[in-house]
């Protein structure tokens, strides 16, 4: 069969193209599914496919029902013997997030690996359509995608053209880490009308010096630590009372699950970021 984009669905047969254009054909919607990232787990549950999830990876904690699903590793390393023993009829992997060598090995084992790309916010909406179609819930996937894109347009329409605000997004404190260039969070900040400092840096979680942050004079500092609690190190910046973000009391923390997971809840994280940036105007 010639690969093409899009997907078809007729009677019980399901045909869906992954983000490499490869067509996956199932005589009936898959019933034994394994997800390789927390955000793909969330996406599966959104499409009401949680009852088909036979295994997933560590940190797949949302919705709460996912917490009782067996683990076969994490998004970087899997127990391949356990994966094979579960005999999945569909594996959902993150193309660009899961290590390529791991994904290649799953395919060499003969398992049906459907690669999902979520490099942009629009990709998240497409993933909804794809997973909905895979489950035999094409209408549900289409409806979720439309709602997601409508909310995205509403948010960026409200904030994007307002005065630009300098934003420092901090991932860690020792050493000080920030966002890689061109990532989804940087895109979210831009759509909120923010200017992400150090946007030209390459690599995952590049480091910057304390002096460089002070010289850049961020108006807003957003910290995403480990878990939902506000990281204590965020308030270290209060040592510099002349820093615009400190003067304006614009030091914010964010639940990393709402923005680092490129899944259905990412617009909740975007709304929080947009509102934080807007308070600094």
Automatic annotation (TrEMBL):
Positions of the Fe/B12 periplasmic-binding domain: 32-281
Pfam families: Peripla_BP_2 (PF01497)
CDD domains, alphabetized: BtuF
InterPro entries (UniProt xref): ABC_Transporter_SBP, ABC_transptr_periplasmic_BD, Vit_B12_bind_prot
SUPFAM superfamilies recorded: Helical backbone' metal receptor (SSF53807)
Keyword field: Signal
PANTHER family found in the cross-reference section: MOLYBDATE-BINDING PROTEIN MOLA, VITAMIN B12-BINDING PROTEIN
The name this protein goes by in its record: Putative vitamin B12 transport protein
Organism of derivation: Magnetococcus massalia (strain MO-1)
